[in-house]
Structure formats: structure tokens, C-alpha cells
């Protein structure tokens, strides 16, 4: 039984999507999205995508890249993912070693990664020199059986509900709201240096983002809050990001955006909704509990210093 690690090829996209769905069922994984993550990566990310192959079958994958959207230099991210049926065969360790080697050559000084919060994953991280830093959780909502709150009728004065698709001619206002909200999101490394061109490449053009199900709340014509929607064509919906601009916070607009987005998703035939929250993000956790989301998995951020 031979295990090899090599660079990702476009023909691997279907196999990688299948193994990611099996290993991380609370995230969206499509062949189109997997291929786009590699082909559409900004040059500054210095991304290298690798797969582990055993007897001709792709059983693991890693994306190793710099966190170029942060103003803190030397930060990088690498999280190996291995199919549950092929673990403890050395694939995760081989992928991580290759990813770390690439990132060290790219100038990384601190490596970040995520593990599912379960004993085997935590032990794997510890064996490879990573220490846990902050917890987060994934939440699931049964869209087919949960009653969603109604939209206010009428909407508050000056408030409108639009879709991401409505911004096709000029998505910059949505970028500005997303960049501001992302910079304030609880995280080990702040995403506070997201360039517009990179956002267009990684978010706006991402084939897993459904602009028709993405809700944008405007107040007197200005983008105030939004919920980015990702779908996989299999009835699964994931909140890629919910945010509100600083000047509009405290008015329930993020909750309004999410209410509209979830109702759109249900009407479009989605039956399951997933989202992720840092454990310190109390306002968003409260909003999600109010919708009926319940924890389905935990994860831990890990870090390792190089040199």
C-alpha cells in the first residue's frame, strides 16, 4: 500500500470535494468550489494545494497559504483533511509536513490550523507541535422543520432588503461592508487588510457563493448589513459571513439580514443550514440560538511558531 503526496490537479476536484464532505459535513464542498480555491487564489497568498494518494485514490488534502489579508506579517494557515475511512495511515502527517515546508520557504513565521474538537484530532495537533488557542463551534438548523421568524411588515423607514445579485454592476459597497465586518470578527489573526481585487477573486467570484440567496440590508441606499450564502446544490446552505457596518450596529439589522437569507434558502429548497461561530462572539451566538440553531460540532484553533 503506497502513500504519496503530490500537487493538486484539477482532475482531483471531485475526489477532494467528496473527502471534505465526509470529513467536515458541516461545511460546503463542491468540485467547482474546490477547483476555484486553487485556481482563484490571489498570488500574495502563495497557496500550494497538495493531495495524499494511496493506491491511486485521493484520501487527503491540504491548502497551505499565507494569511495575506492580515496586516500582521508572517502568518499562514494549513489544515490537513483526511477521509475518515483512511485515517491513521500517515496521510495527515505527510500533508502537514509538506505544507509546513512550503510555508517556511514562503516566509511564514507562525502557522495556524483548525482541528475538530475530538480526542484524535487534538492529539494529532499536539504530536506535531501545535498548541490550542481558541474554540469555536458549528451550528445546524433544520430548515425543513423549523419555523422561521417572519419579516417585519412594514420594514423600518429607509430600510430595504436586496440580494447580492442586485450589486452585480458594482459590488464595491458590499466589499466595503464585508471588509469592515471581517476586521472586527473575533479571530486569532485579524483579516484587516483585504484588498478589493482579492475580495472579488475569493468571495464575489467564488462558485459556491449564491448571490441570489445572499441578503443585503440597505438603509437610505447605503449597505448596512448582509449575509453571504453558500450552497452545494444538495439542499445544504451555509452562512459564509454575516456582518453589520459599525455605524448601523445595535439596530437588529444583522438579524434581519439572516432572517431574510434563511427564508430565501428554505424557499429555494434548502433543507439544512449550517453556520460557524467563535465562542467569544456572544451577539452572533445569541442571534443563531434565536433562530433555532443547535451545536453539531466543535473546533479548535491551533498555532505553531516556526524557527
Question: Which terms would index this structure?
Answer:
about 300 residues, alpha+beta, Aminopeptidase, 13-stranded mixed sheet, about 30% strand
General description of the model:
By secondary structure, the protein is α+β, with helices and mostly antiparallel strands. It folds into two domains: 3-108, Gcn5-related N-acetyltransferase (GNAT) (Aminopeptidase); 141-299, Aminopeptidase (3-Layer(aba) Sandwich), CATH 3.40.630. 30% of the residues lie in helices and 31% in strands. It is built from eight helices and 13 strands. Strands 1, 2, 3, 4, 5, 6, 7, 8, 9, 10, 11, 12 and 13 form a 13-stranded mixed sheet that branches. Strand 11, helix 7 and strand 12 (272-278) form a beta-alpha-beta unit. Helix 1 (13-23) crosses helix 2. The longest helix is centred in the N-terminal third of the chain and has 15 residues, at 91-105. It is globular, with a radius of gyration of 19 Å. The protein starts with a strand and ends with a strand. The model has no long low-confidence stretch (mean pLDDT 95).
